[in-house]
């Protein structure tokens, strides 16, 4: 094992660049999947005839597919029908599609946990259904959603490592490049990347615990 060589500044800089890409991809995917997942959950919660059933079928289909397949589909199959994207965008799209299905179930469960009397009271006071959902039901549900939502975001951040298969220059990819330079770099690189993943995810898990205590 060559810790000194493995942890030379050029290698560390390259690893940190990979970490930045991992965090950037995660941030985009988290934001987009939360928005899309919330929309999907709201449609299912509202039980719009036909549409809710179609959305439910979509969500269940995506949830039962492996993420790696979706990453391959976004990167290799979509260009075949004219949707050409670079590896960064295709990874964000794949993660967004997959995670939005997961998040939609968290949001829907949160909405369903609110007593139906809240909706009835809102409607009785003259609010429309959407106003009731936005001003009364959703704010209460959000407090209950936060801990499982953050746990899902932690899973998303770890799932970015699967994009190594399409050569996205994220943390795991850059680690693989560095350790391939010298067999003695393998253990130091694995340890460094493990520490970086642990630091980020542990920070998020601690945030989850604080949210749970507050709720």
From TrEMBL:
The keyword RNA-binding does not apply. Keywords: Cell membrane, Membrane, Transmembrane, Transmembrane helix, Transport. The keyword Transmembrane helix applies. It is found in: Cell membrane. The chain crosses the membrane at residues 25-43, 55-75, 185-204. It is a multi-pass membrane protein. It comes from the Bacteria. Residues 19-208 form the ABC transmembrane type-1 domain. Its main location: membrane. Belongs to the binding-protein-dependent transport system permease family. PANTHER family: INNER MEMBRANE AMINO-ACID ABC TRANSPORTER PERMEASE PROTEIN YHDY, MEMBRANE COMPONENT OF AMINO ACID ABC TRANSPORTER. This is Amino acid ABC transporter permease. It comes from Ferviditalea candida. The lineage of its organism: Bacteria, Bacillati, Bacillota, Bacilli, Bacillales.
